[in-house]
Amino acid sequence: MAAESQAADSVGIVEPQRLHFPEPIRLESGHTLPEFNLVFETYGTLNADASNAVLICHALSGHHHAAGYHSREDRKPGWWDACIGPGKPIDTNKFFVVCPNNLGGCHGSTGPASENPDTGRPYGPDFPVITVRDWVKSQARLADRLGIDQWAAVIGGSLGGMQALDWAIHYPERIRHAVVIAATPRLTAQNIAFNEVARRAITSDPEFHEGRYLENDAIPQRGLMLARMVGHITYLSDVSMGEKFGRELRDHAYHFGFDVEFQVESYLQYQGVRFSETFDANTYLLMTRALDYFDPAREFGNDLTRAMAEARCRFLVLSFSSDWRFAPEHSQKLVNAMVDARRDVSYAEIDSDWGHDAFLVPNERYESLFRAYMNRVAKEHGDAG
Amino acid sequence: MRADLKLIEPWVAPGSRVLDLGCGDGTLMDYLQREKGVVGYGLEINPEYIEECVRKGVNVIEQDLDEDRLHSFRDQTFDTVIMTQALQAVRRPDRALTEMLRLGREGVVTFPNFGYWRLRLHQLWNGRMPMSSTLPHTWYNTPNIHLCTVRDFEALCQEHRIRIKDRTVVDNAHRSRWYNRLWPNLLGQIAVYRVTR
User: Fold this and answer.
1) CB contact under 8 A, A372 and B55
2) Domain termination site, one of A227, A253, A288
């Protein structure tokens, strides 16, 4: 029962908030959004001098619901409930935690499924391509509205870690710490290739209608499902899939056909179907493109050291041993550039079998180290607890 | 204060950039940060030590000193590279030493002197691998896989054209007695060197 699982270390029942931003925002692509909404959740209490605020940036398929429950009947808590709550690494007794749904998302913030004020119809494919920089820019506006001049820390895993990195580089005065988990300073050709397969799966679905599926009362569900299936494989590891499914059959015998035979097939299908029922196809295209384009070194002559020299904050960088999507070597490259740029940084490679998804999975060393770091952060605003 | 820290401290310039190879729980870096205003990093492999460094506010980077990745730090990134009681535990002490001086202008190295008279006597008398308070491990389960004497170390430096700027040889409590200085290889338990190119 959900009510029972709302233990003492849960933030409890939470309610999403929404802010309207009437000022236009100029995007990296050169396009301008005339106005936008951001939906977000907050946990904990902002202190008097607004020095204890922490921004959580979500990853590809994430959203603003990072911790707690939306109702008593809610079966599952927010996506990072393992790390956010009273006494957890991001301790809501000490920090005021803000987690927005990113621009272009499909969970309430302005995105491709929102109404285009110019046409009165959904943006669909006309929604401009969004980059990590654009997200950070919109998050800075959110900070302004919440009265937060400087984040105690900006924290994220995967694509969220990239946002934390971008904050450090482009708003050096507005962030004291960046926690960059299971991220990379740029995608490899292999990463982009996987993203491209996912996008092709969506755009080649007959129900996609060049992105105007909403106006055609259609949903490219097959495409989304395939995109999620291929993505999901890259989030896990050979070991974790082996442990979870092995070669287990669905009903103990070969049927010599092409329906679902192995448990792993059934699992992927289930994940794919569930995802395709809740996620917007155009948002998926945007999010994967944002990943592809992310490359903070690019505007600094492809010199990551020069990019990192812009930062003023302290960094904690974490990677996971079995993550082959953004392998530890990518985090190490990032750390080397930070050292080269004389930035304060600590780095650890956490032993885990859970692949890229490890940043969401409870792990004793991960949580303990994360907590130790956040306690240091809390000490700076005089709330060591 | 730990006695070995006091020995190393005068060799580290205020405000300099320091790398501590095998930094343990970060005691040395913490001390140098506070007393000397140095900026730097410790490298460590032990998860508990790494967490302790983070708790202290010492920059720590998870790194196996036996791996080649030290090479990805740029040449002469640091003023001083320190390695306390770890030289004898790496797979290739010669490479570690040359790597130290690639990364930094100066190196500070401390190691247990295997030429200490008691260790010599232990082997001569018992015919077994020596054990002492400095070297408490059994031969089959010890991190110290490349023990050397003061003379061995100096020969290695000569071979690699590494200049010894300073040498202090001390007893187990890091005290430097007159006899340590007279017969360092025979009477010193711990050797502390400052080296450069």
Assistant:
1) yes
2) A288
Boundary-marking domain end, from A288, A317, A351: A288
CA of B151 vs chain A CAs: smallest distance (Å): 35
Question: What's this model's pTM, rounded to 2 decimal places?
Answer: 0.94
Are A339 and B62 an interchain contact pair (Cβ–Cβ within 8 Å)?
no
Residues of B in contact with A335 (CB under 8 A): 61
**Cβ contact (<8 Å) for A345 and B53?**
no
* Assigned token pair, B168: 């202090």
* Rounded Cα distance, B12 and B17, in Å: 9
Please confirm, yes or no, whether A49 is among the known catalytic residues: no
- Is A323 part of the annotated catalytic residue set? yes
**Number of other residues whose CB lies within 10 A of the CB of residue A367:** 15
Tell me how close the Cα of A68 comes to any Cα of chain B, in angstroms.
28
Q: Are residues A46 and A129 in the same domain?
A: yes
When CB atoms are compared, the residue of B17, B39, B62 closest to A349 is: B62
Residues in chain A closer than 8 A to B50 (CB atoms): 346, 348, 369
How distant, in Å, are the alpha carbons of A30, B110, B191 from that of B148?
65, 11, 10
Please give the tally of structural domains in chain B: 1
How close is the nearest chain A Cα to the Cα of B78, in Å?
A: 10
Domain span at A239: 192-288
Query: CA–CA separation, A53 vs B140, rounded Å?
Result: 52
* Closest by Cα among A263, A3, A316, A284 to A156: A316
pLDDT tens digits for chain B (197 residues)? 567 778 898 999 999 999 999 999 999 999 999 999 999 999 999 999 999 999 999 999 999 888 766 667 889 999 999 999 899 999 999 999 999 999 999 999 999 988 888 888 888 999 988 888 878 899 999 988 899 999 999 999 999 999 999 998 888 777 877 777 778 888 888 899 999 99
Set of chain A residues whose Cβ sits within 8 Å of the Cβ of B79: none
Catalytic-labelled residue, pool A158, A322, A331, A352:
A158
Residues 99-158 of B with CB under 8 A from A: none
Return phi, psi of residue A46, to 5°: -75, 130
Residues A26 and A152 in one domain: yes
Looking up residue A222, the CATH number of its domain turns out to be 1.10.1740.110
Is A321 an active-site residue? no
Residues A305 and A159 in one domain: yes
**Quick check: A88 and A68 in contact, CB under 8 A?**
no
Q: Does A365 sit within 8 Å of B60, measured CB to CB?
A: no
Based on the fold, state whether residues A241 and A352 are members of the same structural domain: no
Residue of chain A whose Cα is closest to the Cα of B62: A348
| B51, B58, B69 member nearest A368 (Cβ) | B51
- CATH for B140: 3.40.50.150
Q: How many residues are there in chain A?
A: 385
Cβ burial, residue B133 (10 Å; 0-12/13-18/19+): exposed
Residue A385 is assigned to a structural domain of this protein: no
Q: Same domain, yes or no, for A63 and A181?
A: yes
Together in a domain, A104 and A66? yes
Clarify whether residues A62 and A202 are in a common domain. no
